[in-house]
Design a protein that fits this description.
Rossmann fold; 2 domains; N-(1-d-carboxylethyl)-l-norvaline Dehydrogenase, domain 2; six-stranded parallel β-sheet; 289 residues; alpha/beta; homotetramer; three-stranded mixed β-sheet
Chain lengths: 289, 289, 289, 289
């Protein structure tokens, strides 16, 4: 399939490469030129402008956040001249942005699909992402081959694109919640003569199997937060998305508020560029351990 | 092995039956007589008094909480006349009580082991508990056949009995945390057009496999809280144990504080006797959904 | 003095009238025409455009929030053509906006002073506001006659305009904090056989004299929230300003987070247009009273 | 009047001296002997035992907390032999203890009045306490001369002694709330270029007059916490009383929970013996200032 691809950060590059690997023709664009050159070496073609990329029948975008999407893509001129049939936004953005984007695309005769993903860079490189997809059913069908190239499973979440963003925001909120819970427990254990690693062993082989407790738990018990698989500052961005979505829909989220304060403290103490697991430093600071 | 068994609530009965099933001779005692009669029908012998039960070489106890243990078993007279070599307390009690109990037992020449368990009644009936055990290594060895009769796995957590109680308290704290996190997310989803059951499907097959999210999540998405597998009021007891342990060791646990307020609100709204999953009613009340 | 005045909401009207009453020549502008007509009847002249108002040597503005200020006044064209020597922004806006505004005004050769006020409409009408003023000392001197017309006291808070906004944001944060504290205590009292009004009497004549506890406390003990002297929804706006300022400067404010969730719940329950004292309904809902 | 007086800590000594100064005959008892000797020098007589003190027609007690009251005074033997007509407990204890005490005293034909006080040691020495009194009206009348000797004003709060303890617990909860609120604001100010002392000046001369904001605020802006007028560890005790009262009556108090965690962190960081104003160190730690 002919695909336009906008946004070649670490995730975007891994995903675009999966499309190339599965035989799709990918035309890429990125604000800074180096990742474009990299992808061209891997077989992509370079789009000279966003408008050129939006000449492809399908455009995938994977940009940093609401602001960048708003600034680059929610542009009347770009969308009015686009020949793309559908734009699938795979970034973690707010449901509110999804609603604005869907409305704007519709006005210009373009389809809009939200398809944020679960998985870090290594998961993306292996084509094993979980893809949370919402939008018109016909568009989802059309995108299926692309999703299959990038993910191990696609979760259809209905016709309203915003629903997929709500799911992604919720998943990340639960992720940070689990990390905070284990962080508090680990300090309680340590202060009471129980090895946090022994506690983690019990938990992950009984109540809490799966990648989150085991993976972040290991970093927490070792207090080792580099390299950052998922930067802590991004965790604050995601919790803020949850809170903003809650505010807009009048849903108080006190646990998200607690996570926000905890993350902010971690950033104030210099852990913003470390892995999200460094949220546990806040628990240790509280207890003066 | 000759075993004394104190405390025949639902968990205690299931565990004592597992001992009988594996061929142990069990002498039981309970404050109310009916469960004793039941167990006698299953092959146990009735202890005429606590003292009689403490004549067995090993005593297992499974009582409701710190107060009951304190009132019935941390009794100078009982312990001074006991012939039991070791008392294994499998209830969910505070690490502080474990410390007092271990000291008191030692003074009377008795071993004390803490071995709280993970698993509800049905898991206990199947002999599949996870047993968190801490105490002198020799005692743990001696108790191994009993633990094997009751559990699928025993987790040795060191020589200090309190460590096992810290682990149990931490596990339950994480359990309630996970329920609160999903509860908040489910309301956010519902208020934003995403079916909470669809969200749960994504989560349990990606980041959060295992029994906790799936089991409690299903009750939350259905808002169905009866019968109570784990009573909400017991959840408050457990979170209070975490907070008390934190206070004693000067470890602030803001997430536990939030859970405490959330549970208390659920009780104020009449959900104390329902399943722990009814904590989610608080999220719904907050958002007026 | 010749004064331009932008923003004729309830507060703005009261303040502009004070300027007229003290003999100043006031040229007014407002987005909707009716308040302009009202002020003209009171002796003001109508500015045909913002640009015309900014021809006055001093411009006072009293707009709703950051967005409105940004949209109307932080306009390159307006500021480049302005003949005003100094613009004093008396609205409750963020310190971040003050920093941007000061920089932008300076670029166009205009002075910028932040002078948010403490006091509701009736206090403004009586000329009894507390004015929190920050900006270049020479500008503050020049504005003194205007401040004297509007307030009972001016608090100079240094050369950096943002400092005055920080003070205002902090004052409102303390105000909402005090209301939440008394609200929780009032429910505790009621649930325990102590008349909240009796409690309020003790508090206001011992530890907590002054207008806040007495005034909001009386509304809380009567559970009477109309008319709204200070709309609850505005309270959320102000707490959000505190949180945003905290985020930008990496200062976690867990009490502000709690207030935010409490206010949001009150809004979800339909109290957004009532007086700020209606925050107390959240405490009652929590306790199911 | 002949008065028995139990509990000669700093507050108790100051209050007993006021009784002596007003001509009452005071028979004192204390667990440690030295304060007794001191009071005897001031004109009191030494009670040889608690029973002897309870031979007086009126007994005032001012003990440390629930545990001490329970252990020393809620004693069947003591109360059954007492000839005192009324016992007035002026300590800060839980409403729950007041209920048990009132019931127990009634069973032994003794009156029980709760009369906790507002004011630190210096206020007590000057006879300027605010006395929050609840109990049978006839008893309150009888105690009036004693209250007049010790306080500047007595607040009658009804027939149920527990109500007075609820009022006291609430007052201290509001006190700690105000300190936390100003602490957070002071850090926000400091991080944003506003002198916290200037902020305090504005607040105390506008919205927040009275001793609490001014007194604690001055300690906070100077970060000077010694000598301790009110020990921080006692603040935690009082907030715990509020929370326990809330739990017993099913009233969630999230602000009290936040204060508890904040105080616990301050204690973990070594501030337990400093003045309550040291709660502000937690805000500074959060922001890494």
């Amino acid at each position: 399939m002919d695909v336009g691809f906008v946004g070649l950060g670490a995730m975007g590059r891994a995903m675009a490469r999966r499309l190339l690997a599965e035989g799709h023709a990918v035309r890429v664009w990125n604000r800074s030129p180096q990742p474009v050159a990299e992808l061209v070496r891997d077989g992509a073609s370079a789009g000279g402008s966003l408008a050129e990329v939006f000449e492809q029948p399908v455009v995938v975008s994977m940009l940093a956040d609401d602001h960048v999407v708003e600034a680059l893509l929610l542009d009347e001129e770009l969308l009015s001249s686009a020949r793309a049939g559908v734009h699938v936004n795979m970034a973690t953005v707010s449901p509110a942005l999804a609603r604005r984007a869907a409305e704007l695309h519709a006005r210009h005769g373009l389809g809009y699909v939200a398809a944020p993903v679960l998985g870090r860079t290594d998961v993306a490189a292996a084509g094993n992402l979980n893809i949370l997809a919402a939008g018109p059913a016909a568009e989802l069908d059309r995108l299926a081959p692309l999703f299959e190239a990038m993910g191990r499973r696609t979760w259809p979440l209905g016709e309203d694109p915003a629903a997929a963003n709500v799911a992604k925001v919720s998943a990340n909120f639960l992720l940070v919640s689990a990390i905070e819970a284990f962080s508090e427990a680990a300090v309680l254990a340590e202060a009471n003569g129980l090895d946090p690693a022994a506690l983690l062993g019990v938990l992950t082989e009984s109540l809490f199997p799966g990648p989150v407790y085991a993976g972040y738990g290991a970093m927490i018990t070792r207090q080792s937060f580099e390299p950052a698989g998922f930067r802590l500052a991004l965790g604050l961005k995601d919790v803020d998305l949850a809170l903003a979505t809650g505010t807009a829909s009048r849903v108080p989220l006190p646990l998200a508020s607690l996570l926000r304060d905890t993350l902010l403290q971690a950033i104030a103490h210099g852990h913003g560029e470390q892995d999200l697991a460094a949220i546990s430093t806040t628990s240790r600071t509280r207890a003066n351990i």
